[in-house]
Write a structure and sequence with these properties.
With 342 residues, this protein is of the alpha/beta class. The chain is 39% helix and 16% strand. It folds into 2 domains: 201 residues, Isopropylmalate Dehydrogenase (3-Layer(aba) Sandwich), CATH 3.40.718.10; 132 residues, Isopropylmalate Dehydrogenase (3-Layer(aba) Sandwich), CATH 3.40.718. The protein is built from 11 helices and 12 strands. It has a 12-stranded mixed beta sheet, sandwiched between helices.
Length: 342
């Protein structure tokens, strides 16, 4: 890929939430690092014009190749799935759920075909997806199946903290049973490879959180560390991964925040996300590792309680867009460099 600004597809999320508003805010001041192809409803965007002074609707194009080469160029794809009915702000509807699901898969299709360098997803509403008969729990699961990926990892980024999750949206009581030495080993191998390719350095330092307080305190507070996590760390290290652990989360996550580690593997959702969001201050980014293309996302939901009020911020969407552009360029350079030495 050339050094021109990468073209990214932006599915706008649920039309009843803040996705259209934050998309319009981003388009009003597009980041020069990228070119943007919006996938979604023109009507949903138009409804938010009154909330974004100076904003205009992007020109419509028939194909990604029609987006101008200039940095910061924006366009709306005419091929976007039609929205059956524009939902009221804050309402869970099957129509909006079906449309947001279709837009995500359409953007993913463009990425799989190499027509865009990556996708940046707006916030979807899982209940609306369910109402539409979508069986996927969320973006990550839908994109993994659509791409035929063997394994993916959710990683949240805030400042210098990059935290991947061994388990995602499951009850806390279910987490111990979901931890498995072989799975954790593969997570660490994938995490190290994807961090090297997307961010650097070539051999990233990975901190592995324990599950229990004080990483089990030698078995006093639980044996998952000794029985499951430590063998996974050893197996990953034997495969060339530079990993430490299991370590107490309250020690290794702050160490990653100040740069002593390049990434962290957390055992469950809320072990890592409060730290990421505290560091990020509305600029957090969700990135999916393991897909055959770049995918980033906002680190927040649809905010139905404030949709249509003109109070949404596009800070996370902007950060996700800039990161997607940076990662797309970094991966292309990494792949070219490593291919040349084979």
């Amino acid at each position: 890929m050339s050094r021109r600004a990468p073209l990214l597809a932006l599915p706008i999320g649920d039309a009843a939430g803040i996705g259209p508003e934050i998309t319009l805010r981003l388009l009003a001041e597009p980041p020069p690092e990228a070119r943007l192809l919006v996938v979604g409803s023109r009507e949903a965007l138009a409804r938010e014009l009154r909330h974004v002074p100076g904003a205009v609707l992007p020109p419509e194009v028939d194909a990604p190749t029609d987006v101008p080469d200039e940095s910061g160029a924006t366009a709306l794809w005419r091929g976007s799935e039609p929205l059956a009915a524009l939902p009221p702000h804050g309402a869970v509807t099957a129509e909006a759920g079906a449309a947001s699901h279709a837009w995500v898969l359409q953007a993913a299709g463009l990425a799989l075909r190499g027509e865009v360098a990556g996708i940046v997803t707006g916030p979807i509403h899982k209940e609306a997806w369910h109402a539409a008969g979508v069986r996927h729990a969320g973006h990550t699961e839908a994109l993994c199946e659509h791409a035929g990926a063997e394994r993916v990892l959710m990683m949240l980024v805030g400042g210098r903290l990059r935290a991947a999750l061994a388990t995602t949206h499951v009850p806390l009581a279910s987490v111990p049973a979901l931890l498995d030495t072989e799975r954790l080993t593969e997570d660490l191998v994938l995490l190290a490879a994807e961090v090297a390719r997307s961010f650097g350095p070539d051999r990233p330092r990975i901190a592995v959180c324990g599950l229990n307080p004080h990483a089990g305190e030698g078995g006093l507070f639980g044996d998952e560390e000794e029985r499951l996590i430590a063998p996974a760390v050893a197996a990953a290290c034997a495969r060339g991964v530079q990993a430490d652990g299991p370590l107490p989360a309250d020690a290794c996550i702050p160490a990653a925040v100040v740069g002593r580690y390049d990434a962290v593997l957390a055992m469950y959702h809320d072990q890592a996300l409060p730290a990421v969001k505290s560091v990020a201050q509305r600029h957090g980014v969700n990135i999916t590792l393991g897909l055959p293309y770049v995918r980033t996302s906002v680190d927040h939901g649809t905010a139905f309680d404030r949709a249509g009020e003109g109070r949404a911020t596009a800070a996370s969407l902007r950060a996700a867009t800039v990161m997607a552009a940076s990662v797309a360029l970094r991966r292309a350079e990494f792949d070219a460099r490593t291919a040349s030495v084979r």
